[in-house]
Amino acid sequence: MAQQRNPASAKVFNLLLFIFFFSICLSRPATGEEEHTWQEAFEALGIAWNPDGTLNRTVQIPMVPPTPSINPNDTAQVALSTDVFGTSRPYRLYRPINLPKNKKLPLIIYAHGGDFVLFSVSTVIFHNFCNDIAAQFPAIVVSVEYRLAPEHRLPAHYDDTLNAIFWVRDQALRIRPRHPYLEHADFSRVFLVGSSAGANIAFHVALRSLDFNLWPLKIKGLLLNQAYFGGENRTESEIRLKDDPYVALYVNDVLWTLALPLPANNRDHEFCNPLSGGSYLGRVPRLPPVYVKADYGDPLVDRSTVLVEMLRFYGVRVVYQYGTDGSHGIEQRNSTAAQELYDGMKKFIYSIGEYAETEGNYASL
Length: 365
Ligand SMILES: *[C@@H]1O[C@H](CO)[C@@H](O)[C@H](O)[C@H]1NC(C)=O
Ligand SMILES: *[C@@H]1O[C@H](CO)[C@@H](O)[C@H](O)[C@H]1NC(C)=O
Ligand SMILES: *[C@@H]1O[C@H](CO)[C@@H](O)[C@H](O)[C@H]1NC(C)=O
Ligand SMILES: *[C@@H]1O[C@H](CO)[C@@H](O)[C@H](O)[C@H]1NC(C)=O
Description:
alpha/beta, Rossmann fold, 8-stranded mixed sheet, two-stranded antiparallel sheet, binds 2-acetamido-2-deoxy-beta-D-glucopyranose
């Protein structure tokens, strides 16, 4: 744990820290950075802006319904899922098909990816991800249907995910009848998990949650997969991979403009650049252990590296896993890379506390 510091020296200290981390891997904007219009970015994203400020989203990734029962035609099915409504936001819940006997499972609260602007719990790539982790860890998963920008700018995403934590706490306290899936959850072993923008959300929500009494929940860890962060200055990897097919630099710039609170003109906003987190840096030492997954073929990799350095500096326990040539969202396209990710996350989750893994004690419900 980092030592307590008084506020004035902490301020100077934070400033020095900030400059130090930036000097590690940030440099000037690339000269000769090509000009792109925001219309090009909108085309790349499959979005169109209506005069009333709402977006039409025409991304060609299918949405799928939950699978609450075993479908005998689907031999690949590994988990059950169901949607919960009537809460502040809808949630999609997952449980493995086979539940261990007499044993509760870790509880995952999951924030999907999509640059804060796109996608849903029902987008097939995130639905499959949740099915996989529910079956493999195994775990009970609560995937949050948070609101999207620009109709709802940050911190709406953080608020909705924090509310999901409160909903789970109320489930633990049986304030309302408990959902049957959550009967299998160990509320003292909660993990926040996010992919891409979801990892940014998980990070901020973990920090915010420190201000609340969540008893009897215990957030034991934070898992960040290819976290979506940014900043005004470009990193080496952002410049090297600026035309990346998944997260091109000019597209990211437009996305931050859509997602950040108005006037949304500064990517050193604390929601975007974790090093400028003036209002929350003091809370960082109180974070639970953090798992960081990044890939050298992802323009965002340097942002994760800087985050790992910062967390370590503040005394947070960090486990990081870097893939050599994976690109952004590699787990959606490469099953070997997906398995490496699942294995890394599972190892992290089971390394915390006394949660000994026992094989061969599973029974179908
Ligand atoms: C968005 O979709 C609506 C309904 O399909 C359509 O009327 C409108 O023209 C679209 N807006 C843009 C900017 O394409
Ligand atoms: C399984 O496939 C059969 C034959 O195609 C079909 O009649 C049945 O409705 C399917 N069951 C489910 C649960 O989809
Ligand atoms: C951005 O880079 C410039 C030039 O290297 C530097 O002067 C400035 O301090 C950097 N800004 C931040 C916020 O690190
Ligand atoms: C898939 O990922 C694995 C592990 O990261 C890597 O070794 C392999 O080359 C990748 N396959 C393809 C086709 O990219």
